[in-house]
User: Fold these one by one.
Assistant:
Number 1:
Amino acid sequence: GAVVSQHPSWVICKSGTSVKIECRSLDFQATTMFWYRQFPKQSLMLMATSNEGSKATYEQGVEKDKFLINHASLTLSTLTVTSAHPEDSSFYICSARGGHQPQHFGDGTRLSIL
Amino acid sequence: RKEVEQDPGPFNVPEGATVAFNCTYSNSASQSFFWYRQDCRKEPKLLMSVYSSGNEDGRFTAQLNRASQYISLLIRDSKLSDSATYLCVVNRNQAGTALIFGKGTTLSVSS
C-alpha cells in the first residue's frame, strides 16, 4: 500500500535551533500534504495544508513565519520549525494524499527542545 | 464548539466485553467520516471509514447519523490488543480536504 516516510523520527535540540522535518510519499504523487501537531494527551491538531507548488494554508493560530512549509515537489514536503523553543516540543505528523488516494500518515517526528 | 468532540474515557473493560464510543461533529458540510486507532507514541492508523448506511468490519461496527451529526463505533468481543486510543475523524468539508481529529477515547481491555 501507499507509504509516507517522515524523517527524522526523533529530534532533540537546543532552544533557538531551527529544525527541518521531511515528509515523502514513496509510491504515489502527493498533490496535497497536511501537517499536524499533537501534544501529550491531546488530539492531532491540523497546522497547515500544503498543495504542491503553492503556498501553504495555515490554520488559525499557527504562525507561518515560525513554521515554514515547503512543498516543491509531488513527493516531498518539509516543515521547518524556526528558532524552536521548549513550548514547540511536540509530536509532528504529516499526511499525504494524491488523486483518489485516501490520506496516508507518516510515522511522526518527536521533537524535544531543551 | 470544537469541530469534533468525543468522550475521552478511559473505558476500562474486561476481555470479551462490548464497548461503544460516540462522537459528534459540528460542520454539517463534512462528507467523510472515519475511525482511527492510535497506539501510544505512534501515528494514527485508519480503522475504518464510516458510511451513512452503517458498516461492519469483523468485530467493529460504525454508524453515522447525519441529521444528528453523530458517529459511533461499537467493538464486540473486546481483545487485549484493542487497547488503544480511538479517534473520531471527519474531513473539513469537501472530500479530500483536511482531516479533523477528535481528542480520542482511550480504551483499556484487561484479562
Number 2:
Amino acid sequence: SQQGEEDPQALSIQEGENATMNCSYKTSINNLQWYRQNSGRGLVHLILIRSNEREKHSGRLRVTLDTSKKSSSLLITASRAADTASYFCATDKDGANNLFFGTGTRLTVIP
Amino acid sequence: GAVVSQHPSRVICKSGTSVKIECRSLDFQATTMFWYRQFPKQSLMLMATSNEGSKATYEQGVEKDKFLINHASLTLSTLTVTSAHPEDSSFYICSAEIGGDYEQYFGPGTRLTVT
C-alpha cells in the first residue's frame, strides 16, 4: 500500500520562481528521500534526510522534515525549465529500506 | 556513480505469453534489488524485494506466481510476468541497493504493453 501522499498533484510555475512540494506519510520512518523522474525515464535520487534532521540543502534544493507532523517539503529555488519532471518522496516505512513512494507532484516550469 | 540497467526498455507481447525483464547492476554488487511498477500518472508501487540467493518478499496484493522474481547473482535480478494480460501493461522499474547504503539506484524502466 502507498505510504505517502504529496501535494499538489500538479504545479505549474514560471522559470525563476520557487517551487514547493509537500509530502505526508503515515508511519514512523528512519529517513525520507526525494526522487525526480523525467517522463518515461527512471528515477534519480535527489536528497535524503534522516529522521533526526530537520532541514537539508543541496544546491537549489531545500528539504525540511517534521516528524511530529509526519511531513516533508521540497523547495526548488530559482526554477529552470529543465526542472520540469515528476517529484516523488519515498520513506522506509519500517526501517528495512523498502521504499514506499508518495503519489508524486508533476512540476512544469514554463520558460 | 552506480549504474543499473534494465532490458528490454520496451516490450510488446500478446496476452497469455510470458515476459522476462532483466535488471543488472553494472559497476557494483547489489545485495538487494527491488521491483516497482508504475501505472500511467500514478506513483510507483513496490512489488517485491529480492535478496541474492533467497526467495523474494512480495508486497501484499502482488501475486508471486504471476510475477516470478529470480535474484541469481549479486548483479542480476529478473522479473518474469507470466501469462500476461492487458492489465499487466505498465512501467516496471527495478532498483538496486549497495549493502548498508540507504540510497537506491534505479534502472531506466521497462515499458510493457500486453495486447
